[in-house]
Structure formats: structure tokens, C-alpha cells
Amino acid sequence: MTDISNKVVVVGSGSAGFTAALSAKEAGLEPMIVESTNLLGGSSAMSGGGLWVPNNPLMLKAGVHDSYEDAKLYLDRVIGDVGPASSPERREAFLREGPRMVEWLTQLGFRFSYTPGYADYYPELPGGSVQGRSVEPDFFDLKQLGAWKNSLNILMPIPLHTLDAAQISLSFRSLSAFFHTAKVFGFRAIGSALLGKKLAGLGGALIGQLLYLALQREIPIWVNSPMVELLYENDTVTGVIVEKEGQRTTLRASAVILAAGGFARNQAMREQYHPHPITTQWTVATQGDLGVPIQAGMAIGAATALMDDAWWGPVFIDHKGTAQFMLWERSAPFGIIVDSSGKRFMNESASYVDCGHWQYECNQTAPAIPAFMIADSRHRKYYPFGMMLPGITPKAIYESGMLVKADSLRELAQACNINPDNLEQTVQRFNQFAATGKDLDFHRGDSAYDRVYSDPRVKPNPNLGPVEKPPFFAVRVWPGDLGTKGGLLTDAAARVLRADGSVIEGLYAAGNTSASVMGRTYPGPGSTIGPAMVFGMLAGEDAGRRAGKNG
């Protein structure tokens, strides 16, 4: 009989999956990764690639103060009591082990950079950081991956850092931003290509580096091998069944680590668990985010938590029918977001998860799905919108209905079925706030995080610009998401639990397959990937300890 005592199957090839596989390998096990699609990286590869890791060694080396105590104070205040998904033990594990995870991966050869100036999402709260606690991957040459160089789930390999987007959004507003953008697309992108490199940044660099480390360690990777079900014998998980090349294959193992995302692309699950209206059209998660591992865990008695929540964020649907996540678009001056009654209901520059919650809350009393971003001519003239350059709006954008244009606010309201009287009154009140620099209704621009995406040329508040110069524009805003937040309930070692708190032996979960330690909020940039990689590391390590005890 084949010895499976050192075998570990990792389901999913995102940041949690790769980290878990590397951790298991370092623990002396023999991991393999199975990926349901033909591309690696999942939603991690499509993301900004940042990791929110308090008290990390890079920020400390840069002279930015942080401590376990400050970070705990901040997390406790921001998250509150949301049940066992964010238990004191799991928060403790994340905060204690996060810095070690960064150090460990650095020792393996991963190259990180600190991201100063990308503030926590609530930096003014006790323990919050204005300079931020995020690290991100250095640029990575995908050609180092050899035959795997085109295997990542990224849209395009562009060498960007996360805060480059803030400068790019101001390219038509300041010379320094213009030259910064020219540097990104000229020196970095074109220059590196002329040198024979294929540099990636953001999520592409994150998964590229993790894949490179896995290939160095000869960790087997199967693509196009979706999981079907777990093998469960004598109250213990003993492997997994996958479908490879049309054939069901049994992979026996001492441990299975589920790290294949959530259920953002599963319409039936979203309708069952999430507030309505809901559709998979609004998510920007990877197409393979179908919830199969979560269902497989539930089928053998695993508990779940936070299933009604997601990593929400406003999106618009472009002229091709694709959801586009909104960051600078809603945060820049000269624009607001209103419901169909014509009234504002949020701080448009706030954390995207909060914006999603607020949109659903507003929709209970006034039609807010869709909501509408209302902007004047300066917003369209000065700032990019999605992939559109400032001041350039292709005809197809109007023809598709994505963007509505009118010479007056009343005409715009009538075209969008918004209450015109309320919209005019709302804009008049907002314009008064823009003049004084104080948003008395929603405090937009008061927080350092609000100002990450803003225009310093606009005074006295860089997030507030009056909506008064025709023509006016409207775009429908939907409650989209980066992925789902609920999943299998796990403990501080990433072991999957039953409803009674007992451990399902041999089964682990990390990333969006597990219920988030961040609860119902989003403390800072990288709050999805940071915990995903920390608990991925812990899962691999615990699997190693368990194999040692059973060996």
C-alpha cells in the first residue's frame, strides 16, 4: 500500500494555496497543488497584490512605528465581536505570525517592498496607521518561469506598484504625476521589454514569485483539475477526488488544504446566502470562484461563518458587460454617488467594503441598486474612468448606456429616472461642502485614507469639488465585490472545525475558502491576501506537525 503519511494536497493556486504548499514542503512533507482552471493564481493574480501585515519587518526597517499592542487595539476596535471566525485566538495568530511569515518568505527568496503612505482604512481610530501596514511584491520577470510564463491569471503584465494608480489618476493634473506615469509605461514597461524581460507587478508579481519558489522546490502542480469531493473515512479527511482530463482521480493524503477561493461566481449560493438583489455579474473575482471546496467541507460536517458577507465594493459595468472595480473614480473631486431618490447615502471615498454595506442598507429604504455616480465635466476632463483616458470618451461608451450625458442636472436625472428636485438640492448642498472643505453629512476627505485617491490641487478638501460645470455625467453603480468573505470555520492553526468546535482531522482551509478573521470589515489594503498567506503558512506547518505525530 502506498505510504501517504507525507502527502499533502493543496486545492487552489492563489496566494493562500502557494504559501500553504511552500510551508508544507519546508515542514518536510510532499505537497501538490491542484487548480480547477487552466491558469494559476485565482483572484490573487488579478489583485493589487498587497498584504496587510501589522508590525511587519519592512515597515519597522523603514522607521515606521508599529507594535503588536497597537495592531491589536486597532483590530479589536475595527472588527468588534463577530463570532468565532475572528476569535481572539485567530486574531492573535494573525498578528503574531504575520511578521514571521514575511521574514520566512524573504528567507526563501521572495522579494517584498513596503508601501509607505497607503493608510489603514480607519487610520484615525486608536492603533491605526496613517503610513500603513502593507507590503507588496517587487516586480518580477515572468520569463524566469520558463514554460509556465504565460500560465498566470493576470490581465496584462505591467510593472505597477499599488500606489502607482493614485499617480496615474492624476496624470493630467500635475507634471510630477505625468512624469511618474511616463516612467511606469515608458522606462519600466517598454524599457524592460527591450531588455528581453516580461515584468509584472501587483498580483502578477505576487503569484509569479510564489510559483517560482514552488517550481524551485519541484512541487507538482496540476491545472484543469477541479476538485469533486473530499475523501472522509473514520471522521478524518484522507484525500480528495479531482477530475483531471475528464477522468476522476483519487489523491490520497495525510492532509488536504482547501485554498480555492469562495463562491463569488456561484449564483445559487449567492442567492441562498447574500442580500438581494445579487448576481455574479457584479463580482470581479476569478471565474473559478465557484464554492466547490466550501460545499465539500459542509458535506462532511464543517461549520461555516459570515456566509452572508463579501469583500464588497462599488463597481460599474463597462460597455462590454464586464464589472470594473471603482477606486479613484468615486473618490476624486467633482463627483458624488446618489440613490434613485437623488440623495447621497455614503462617504464616496471610504473603504469599498463599507460602501457596499451602505448601498445594501440604503436599498432597504430607497432604491439604491443601482446607485448613480453623478459628475461634472471636470471629472471627465481631469481623471481616467476605468480604462478611459481623461477627456476621451469613445462613442461606444454612450451607445452602450454605460455613461449618460446631459446639459443639466435635471435632464440627467430624468434620463436616469432619478428624482430631479432631490438631485438638484443634493448637489447644491454638496457644493456648499466643497466650498468650505467640510462634508457635514458623511465626512468625506476627513480621513487620511480618503485622501489616498484625491486631487491635491483641489482646495480646501482634495476629495470635494463642486458638481456645477456642464455637461454632467451619470454611471450606474452596483454593489460588486472582490470575492466572498464567508466560508469554512477554522481555528488558529487553520484547521477546519465542526459546529461543536471539534477539529475535522486532516482538513485545513485558508483564504476565501475560510471565514475571514477580518470579520465584516476591511482594516487596510491587503486584508484579504495578508491573512490568506499567514493561515496558509500555518496550515502547512500544522500538517507537518500532525504527520510527525502520526508517523
Main sheet properties = 6 strands, mixed
Number of helices: 17
Question: Any guess at the CATH architecture of the largest domain?
Answer: 3-Layer(bba) Sandwich
- Helix/sheet category: alpha+beta
The neighbouring-strand order within the major sheet is 8-2-1-12-22-21
Q: Name the average pLDDT.
A: 96
**Would you report the number of β strands?**
22
Q: Which range does the strand content fall in?
A: 15-25%
CATH class of the largest domain: Alpha Beta
Broad shape: globular
Instruction: Name the poorly predicted regions.
Output: none
The CATH superfamily title of the largest domain: FAD/NAD(P)-binding domain
CATH T-level fold name of the largest domain: FAD/NAD(P)-binding domain
The rounded distance between the terminal residues' Cα atoms is 15 Å
Number of domains in the coordinates?
Answer: 3
Helix content: 25-40%
**Subunit arrangement of the protein:** single chain
Radius of gyration over all CA atoms, rounded? 23 Å
